[in-house]
């Protein structure tokens, strides 16, 4: 990178700071070469870190405000997190469910997980990945039951329990009914911008795949709506009666169809608008509590 390229980069960064499209800009920074010996590169790295940290901090505060109002997490719960990267939902849920609870998360992009969280890297729309999510949730549920029986969690023969339960598993439909998750979270949207470091090295390829591949990228309202509908179908089969479902979806003209499905399936639906949380964020969060019963899939607007 010569002096003219560096100057152009700094100019584009200044334009970004005053309000240009953040997602496109951060995607281009992933393809830049690393020159850690220059002041410009060090300054860029620090700015990216601070930008990512500020986003995570604002998002964490927003999620904690929902938890404070709705009380959707409780100690000992089993939480399924669809679209977990960069792991903020995992941190919020794990703090409130305690050591007796369990979070099972899935995402194409790997993320750091708390002690009471299991993470599966893969595409949630794949039936094989859904099977793995359900099996991980069932193992966590069986471990909770065994812990209650043995008293001390450290004395539970976990490996033997997992092998025996794996042999008893049948098809996915019966597994979903047996799952009985307390909370299902769906944040299947555009990934957070990335920064350099170890996380960058292990996440760059899946991150670029999500941004560039036609079948993985979330470009508009319809893509987001399709993912939310897929998560809804999964939650209706995997949630326990009176369970809670939270989904984040890009706002748009077809949102009433999703709202109709949610009100048909849950006794209470609360809307949380994210426009005031992030600049240029056009997403809506629906918190649905009190699962009534699983409606026939043909009645949903899928």
UniProtKB/TrEMBL annotation:
This is SAM-dependent methyltransferase. Transmembrane segments: none annotated. GO terms for cellular component: mitochondrion. One of its GO terms (molecular function) is rRNA (uridine-2'-O-)-methyltransferase activity. InterPro entries: RNA_methyltr_RlmE, RNA_MeTrfase_FtsJ_dom, SAM-dependent_MTases_sf. It comes from the Eukaryota. PANTHER family: RIBOSOMAL RNA METHYLTRANSFERASE (PTHR10920), RIBOSOMAL RNA METHYLTRANSFERASE PB17E12.10C-RELATED (PTHR10920:SF29). It comes from Schizosaccharomyces cryophilus (strain OY26 / ATCC MYA-4695 / CBS 11777 / NBRC 106824 / NRRL Y48691) (Fission yeast). Coiled coil: none annotated. Residues 63-275 form the Ribosomal RNA methyltransferase FtsJ domain. Keywords: Methyltransferase, S-adenosyl-L-methionine, Transferase. The lineage of its organism: Eukaryota, Fungi, Dikarya, Ascomycota, Taphrinomycotina.
